[in-house]
């Protein structure tokens, strides 16, 4: 076992000591590096590749109280064939829905793309562990092969790291073979130091992905926050030889934004992470702009406003 791994049966003493020993984040430096990478330009040939890569990394998402099975099925069809007029357009990575609508997504996508369900009393995380585990198990039983859980931010911010760790471990077990994405809700963590601590805590507890946000809190994903999370997965890989994914979710709406994140990934963790298996965008409107920009680059002109569906 690596010195950085903590078995859930062990005391939390080692976990607390490790988190306390993490170096602080140079916030000014992180913001400056993220801003500098965000200004990088790429050649046209690379941009076409980047747009297709970004499409393939999208978790196409609807998480509204008014969601219906019909809406989820229509979105799932779009996830499989984002541009019906151009079959060379890649499918997205997954559709992301509430647990009670997993069945509707799975009916459409079969086993061709992933179905992710938000769980554990999303987005607040305010529920008992029993409710969170039932939420998770029901979504997996309905066909979800990815679970997006939220951490208890109240417990984290009051220093009750052991509770947060134990809940992630328990949810991971409830997932069975489904992958677990742990949502940090970085907009509520306030500092980049907390983002680093939460990232390490989640990875040590068994997360397959660490995710920035629910999309329900402002700010959601930002380049500096994502940089700190990418640095954490890089360092975790160097220590354990295990690659953990990162999902940037909330507020990423344009192709230009998406390409900034791809540059950030490449420059921070390398091209091994430039795959839907290790990097995702949680988004609802981003896909439309990616499709419009893709068509512009292929044909030389933009299509009319009805070229893409309104989600």
Would you mind describing this structure in some detail?
This protein is α/β, with parallel strands linked by helices. It has one domain (44-298): Alpha-Beta Barrel (TIM Barrel), CATH 3.20.20. It has helices spanning 13-20, 27-37, 44-56, 69-80, 102-109, 129-141, 153-157, 161-175, 186-189, 192-205, 223-240, 255-268, 286-299, and strands at residues 58-61, 94-98, 114-119, 146-150, 179-183, 209-211, 245-249, 279-283. An eight-stranded parallel beta barrel has the order 1-2-3-4-5-6-7-8, surrounded by seven helices. Helix 12 (255-268) links the parallel strand 7 and strand 8. Helix 3 (44-56) crosses helix 12. It is globular, with a radius of gyration of 19 Å.
List its traits.
single chain, 311 residues, alpha/beta, TIM Barrel, eight-stranded parallel β-barrel
Chart the SSEs and their pairings.
Layout: H1 13-20, H2 27-37, H3 44-56, E1 58-61, H4 69-80, E2 94-98, H5 102-109, E3 114-119, H6 129-141, E4 146-150, H7 153-157, H8 161-175, E5 179-183, H9 186-189, H10 192-205, E6 209-211, H11 223-240, E7 245-249, H12 255-268, E8 279-283, H13 286-299
Parallel strand pairs: 1-2, 1-8, 2-3, 3-4, 4-5, 5-6, 6-7, 7-8
Helix pairs in contact: 2-11, 3-12, 3-13, 4-5, 6-8, 8-10, 10-11, 11-12
């Amino acid at each position: 076992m690596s010195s950085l791994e903590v078995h859930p049966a062990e005391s939390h003493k080692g976990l607390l000591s490790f988190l306390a020993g993490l170096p602080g984040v140079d916030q000014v430096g992180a913001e400056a590096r993220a801003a500098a990478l965000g200004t990088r330009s790429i050649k046209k040939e690379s941009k076409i590749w980047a747009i297709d890569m970004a499409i393939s990394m999208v978790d196409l998402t609807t998480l509204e109280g008014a969601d219906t099975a019909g809406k989820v099925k229509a979105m799932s069809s779009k996830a499989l064939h984002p541009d019906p007029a151009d079959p060379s357009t890649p499918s997205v990575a997954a559709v992301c829905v509430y647990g009670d609508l997993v069945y509707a997504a799975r009916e459409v996508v079969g086993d061709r793309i992933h179905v992710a369900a938000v769980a554990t009393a999303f987005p607040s995380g305010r529920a008992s562990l029993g409710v969170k585990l039932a939420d998770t198990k029901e979504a997996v039983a309905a066909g979800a092969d990815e679970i997006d859980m939220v951490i208890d931010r109240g417990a984290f911010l009051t220093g009750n790291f052991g509770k947060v760790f134990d809940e992630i471990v328990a949810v991971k077990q409830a997932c069975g073979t489904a992958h677990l994405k742990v949502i940090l809700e970085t907009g509520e963590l306030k500092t980049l130091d907390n983002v680093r601590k939460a990232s390490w805590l989640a990875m040590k507890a068994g997360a397959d992905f660490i995710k920035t946000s629910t999309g329900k809190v402002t700010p959601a994903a930002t380049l500096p926050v994502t940089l700190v999370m990418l640095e954490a997965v890089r360092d975790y890989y160097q220590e354990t030889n295990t690659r953990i994914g990162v999902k940037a979710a909330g507020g990423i709406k344009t192709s230009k934004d998406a390409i900034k994140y791809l540059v950030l990934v490449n420059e921070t963790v390398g091209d091994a992470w430039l795959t839907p298996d290790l990097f995702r965008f949680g988004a609802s409107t981003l896909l439309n702009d990616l499709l419009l920009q893709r068509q512009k680059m292929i044909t030389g002109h933009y299509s009319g406003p009805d070229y893409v569906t309104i989600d």
